[in-house]
């Protein structure tokens, strides 16, 4: 989450809801599931950020289940609990539900933001995000 969003959240002006859009193959699904397993231990954002730091490409072996478990260990998560969560697909329904919901709203790529229901698609400079938020706040 970027500094613009953090600012508006800390000021109490916006709510931010993160939804998975795992459509880039099996590794994207496993990575999303793993981040939800980390969320169950209170470390979603730490794990999320670590995944983006580790990312090397789509479905090239970076996000195998074994690697995802190693990443959890880097964050000192309860390894047994995390491994069980990931290997038993305990969070798969959350991920699938988010992905399906996004598809219903026309999400075809990431990131996609909805600001008061209006889509803002793709990586955007902070000024564009700020302008979209300010426009929504003034409505």
Commentary on this structure:
- With 139 residues, the chain is mainly α.
- The protein has 2 domains: 1-21 and 107-139, no CATH class; 22-100, no CATH class.
- The protein is built from 7 helices and 2 strands; from the N terminus they run ααααααββα.
- α2 (26-39) packs parallel to α4 and α4 packs antiparallel against α5 (79-87).
- It starts with a helix and ends with a helix.
- The relative contact order is 0.15.
Radius of gyration: 16 Å
Beta-strand proportion:
5-15%
Mean pLDDT: 93
Q: Tell me the strand order in the biggest sheet.
A: 1-2
Oligomer: single chain
> How many helices does DSSP assign?
7
Contiguous uncertain segments of 5+ residues = none
Query: Helical content, roughly?
Result: 55-70%
Structural class: mainly alpha
Shape: globular
Q: Outline of this structure?
A:
This protein has seven helices and two strands.
Write the layout of secondary structure elements.
Elements: H1 3-10, H2 26-39, H3 44-54, H4 65-74, H5 79-87, H6 92-104, E1 112-115, E2 118-121, H7 126-138
Antiparallel strand pairs: 1-2
Keyword list:
globular; mainly alpha; 139 residues; 56% helix; 7 helices; two-stranded antiparallel sheet
């Amino acid at each position: 989450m970027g500094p613009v969003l953090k600012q508006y959240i800390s000021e109490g002006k916006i709510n931010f809801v993160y939804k998975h859009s795992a459509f880039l193959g099996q590794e994207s699904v496993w990575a999303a599931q793993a981040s939800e397993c980390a969320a169950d231990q209170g470390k979603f954002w730490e794990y999320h950020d670590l995944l983006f730091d580790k990312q090397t490409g789509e479905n090239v072996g970076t996000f195998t289940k074994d690697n995802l478990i190693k990443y959890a260990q880097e964050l000192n998560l309860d390894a047994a609990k995390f491994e069980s969560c990931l290997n038993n697909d305990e969070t798969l329904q959350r991920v699938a539900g988010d992905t399906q919901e996004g598809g219903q709203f026309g999400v075809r790529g990431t990131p996609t933001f909805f600001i008061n229901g209006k889509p803002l698609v793709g990586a955007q400079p902070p000024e564009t995000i700020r302008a979209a938020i300010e426009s929504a706040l003034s409505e």
